Amino acid sequence: MSVRRTIRRAWEAYRLLRVASYAAGALAGAGGLAGAYWTLLARRLRAGLAEDSPEYAADTAVDPWHAGERAAGLARMLRQIRDASGARLVPILAAAVVLIALLALANLRMPKPDNPFDRDPVRLFPDADRTWIRMAAGGRCEHRGLFGLLRCRGPIEHMDHHYPWSRGGATDRHNLVGLCARHNLRKSDGIPTLLRTWLLYRSRLKYFPARLRGYAWPDGRAHSMRDDDRKELE
């Protein structure tokens, strides 16, 4: 199983490298075309200048895109920024760094659960688990919107693998989330972020019964549970 997983990861890395090489080739080709067009345009302008004023043609630099003026303007702007008061730039830069850090943290994905399979051989949740999540969540969709402040008011219609089944999530109560049809279809097989998982966890602590709060954090793993334990929790 580990060999198969290693091969799959190597194949995914190869695909990313291939896409990156295609993108680099496209950029290089676009740059080459732009350079060729600039050279052709410069030659035409120089030819016209040589025909109209041959005495000045040799001493005149042809710049059809005004690249020299733009470079000089950019240099002036950079000097102005460098000479500006540091007291003004420090809080702006600090706020930008904090914002970038918050965005990066908000987009951190859940790590892949350490399951003994690439895909759980069981795809559908049994009826007992469907009844269990409806009871635990009060029959209401568990999707959180508006940065986790609001909860969907729709009924539970779909049984969702919080960590997608197609990516290695287990068909287990520790990975089960009750959603309405609209939010489940919108989620698709995207890997949830840690922030979204934490917001769901905090919300579940409020409406899950006390004896079921061990299931509040959907970790995507396959937990062994005896039938007697399932009956007791139901």
Description:
It comes from Bifidobacterium longum. Keywords: Membrane, Transmembrane, Transmembrane helix. Residues 157-189 form the HNH domain. The protein is mostly helical. It has two domains: 2-64; 127-233, no CATH class. It contains eight helices and four strands. The strands form two sheets. The chain has a two-stranded antiparallel sheet with strand order 1-2. Strands 3-4 form a two-stranded antiparallel ribbon. The chain starts with a helix and ends with a helix.
Question: Which structural traits does this protein have?
Answer:
234 residues; mainly alpha; two-stranded antiparallel ribbon; two-stranded antiparallel sheet; 56% helix; endonuclease activity; HNH domain-containing protein
How would you concisely characterize the structure shown here?
Keywords: Membrane, Transmembrane, Transmembrane helix. This protein has helices spanning 2-52, 54-57, 67-83, 86-106, 127-136, 181-187, 194-207, 227-233; strands at 144-145, 150-151, 158-161, 176-179.
List the helices and strands and how they pair.
Elements: H1 2-52, H2 54-57, H3 67-83, H4 86-106, H5 127-136, E1 144-145, E2 150-151, E3 158-161, E4 176-179, H6 181-187, H7 194-207, H8 227-233
Antiparallel strand pairs: 1-2, 3-4
Domain HNH: 157-189
Pfam families: HNH
Transmembrane segments: 20-40, 86-106
